[in-house]
Write a sequence for this structure.
């Protein structure tokens, strides 16, 4: 494993690089946060020290820091300084069928998404099987980074039959709002959770160190008539989520039939 880069890495900023210096500095600080050199709640050195350390102006430092504040990676506390942001911690009941946007809003957090890709294409054999589609039927694929108060929380690839969602460009905010608007509200879902470690690509998107523990979740949602509505594969930051399940004392007798996500 390679060592994380040092804070004042002389190779981090170069006048020969065509990007403005503040963007180079922001990129370097982003890498330090993703690599764990700067951890949640760590204080950033003072603006003056950063300017001296990187031999740039204080204006450059201020612009770089502001860019990371806008991305939600840093936050400023009046009279205390600038700190590496902590992911909001969310407790999520597993028994309610809700969407990301409504979940976050109900906690006073502002949901948003960044598009990783959006397309319409013939279903893969796996998607066709899971969604009960005929060979060659099309699906809308929505691959999004989900954020709460601008902090990356989860990566989600949602696949919906194109006959239900013919135009993935219709989704600008909540997918479930669009599905409800089209008269296809999710009625029931099956979910599989497993633990894993984020790959380099996933960690890069979520802006955490590679190998950070995560919850891998697959959800299959169904319409009221029982037809499959969506197949979602997602990676949730393990440090940001607790999933809560309510258990009731079994009254004995027969065990309810269990269902599995296959
Ligand atoms: C949740 C669901 C996902 C659904 C999304 C819709 C889990 C594990 N997944 O993230 O299946 O597509 O919400 O959210 O809960 P939206 O309405 O905000 O787009």
């Amino acid at each position: 494993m390679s060592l994380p880069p040092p804070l004042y890495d002389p190779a981090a900023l170069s006048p020969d690089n065509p990007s403005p210096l503040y963007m180079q500095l922001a990129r370097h600080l982003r890498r330090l946060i993703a690599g764990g050199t700067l951890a949640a709640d760590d204080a950033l050195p003072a603006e003056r020290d950063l300017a001296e350390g990187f031999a740039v102006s204080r204006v450059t430092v201020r612009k770089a820091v502001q860019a990371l504040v806008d991305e939600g990676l840093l936050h400023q506390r009046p009279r205390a300084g600038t700190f590496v942001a902590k992911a909001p911690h969310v407790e999520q009941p597993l028994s309610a069928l809700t969407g990301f946007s409504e979940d976050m809003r109900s906690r006073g957090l502002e949901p948003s998404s960044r598009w990783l890709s959006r397309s319409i294409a013939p279903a893969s054999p796996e998607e066709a099987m899971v969604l009960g589609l005929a060979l060659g039927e099309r699906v809308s694929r929505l691959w999004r980074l989900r954020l709460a108060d601008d902090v990356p929380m989860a990566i989600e690839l949602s696949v919906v039959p194109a006959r239900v969602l013919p135009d993935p460009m219709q989704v600008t905010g909540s997918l479930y709002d669009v599905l409800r608007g089209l008269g296809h509200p999710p009625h029931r879902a099956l979910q599989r959770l497993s633990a894993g470690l984020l790959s380099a690509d996933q960690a890069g998107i979520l802006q955490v160190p590679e190998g950070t523990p995560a919850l891998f979740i697959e959800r299959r949602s169904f319409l009221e008539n029982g037809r499959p509505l969506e197949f979602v594969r997602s990676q949730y930051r393990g440090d940001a989520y607790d999933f809560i399940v309510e258990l009731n004392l079994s009254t004995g007798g027969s065990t309810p039939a269990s269902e599995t996500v296959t």
